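Late entry, evening session. Most of the bench is empty. Finally got around to the prediction I had been postponing all week. Sequence below, unchanged from the version circulated by S.P.
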Amino acid sequence: MDVLIQQLLNGLVSGSLYALVALGYTMVYGILRIINFAHGDVLMIGALVGLSVIRVVQAIWPQLPSVLVLGLAALIAMAFCALLAMLIERVAYRRLRNAPRLAPLISGIGVSLLLQTFAMLLWTRNPQMFPQLLPLEPIELLASDSGHAAITHLTALTTIAVAVAVMLGLVLLVERTRFGRAMRAVAENPQVASLMGINPNRIIVLTFAIGGALAALAGILMASNYGSAHFYMGFLPGIKAFTAAVLGGIGNLKGAMLGGLLLGLIEALGTGYLGAATGGVFGSNYQDVFAFIVLIAVLVFRPSGILGERLATRA
């Protein structure tokens, strides 16, 4: 029982990160019908920018509490990646909105490689140690005589709490505010939305900015959990977040959240129990396999995802 709870907690941590990134994919797809394959590398840039901010702040104000340092780094990284996502939309996607779907796909892959090369030149190709700014003492849950289930450290608990709060806030933003109504109007028909006083370009740019900020936040949380950041760290999380968006239903915010959490749980339970059953042959080194198995299964048996695609039919 303790092992099951431990694996569930591990799955919730990774699933929360996938969900944050998947929200960026699903928002952009819901409005433009394109997959921004550079999105995972925005996560990587956010983590490395946050690392640079932490180093500068600790050098200038060494007495500043570590929680404030991490919060400041996250805010600056989110602002930087929001601007970066806006730039990506302007340079790589705006002129390709009405192009065949293969064109923005290739453009996104090109931007992804460009960002990786830029990060490799600026931060080197070696993994950078990300400082642990939150307490590392294990948090025991449901302790018993036979053992205990524990979240490894407070960073993991913070990851789950922040991810849930951000996801709920985003749903409220889209469903209860004027900006959210404008997003839905542009997704349904940009021309009619513009006749009603909505600027489609502005809505699209702000959607990219929100997605970029969420990716940066996920990058900071991921680097804090794993203790390192490097130029290639965004590739697999980006692919897995795309898998989560497809699993839940592309274009569906609640589907992206559900898909991310389910994918994290599938990975954790699969590697934990299958690894134990096979004597470690299918251990943590094979956890990435489960994401691609899920992606293939969803595309074959339920392409619309668990909750279904939420896409307006454009006239």
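Two things to note before I forget:
The mean pLDDT is 85.
The two ends are 53 Å apart (CA to CA).
Will write this up properly tomorrow.
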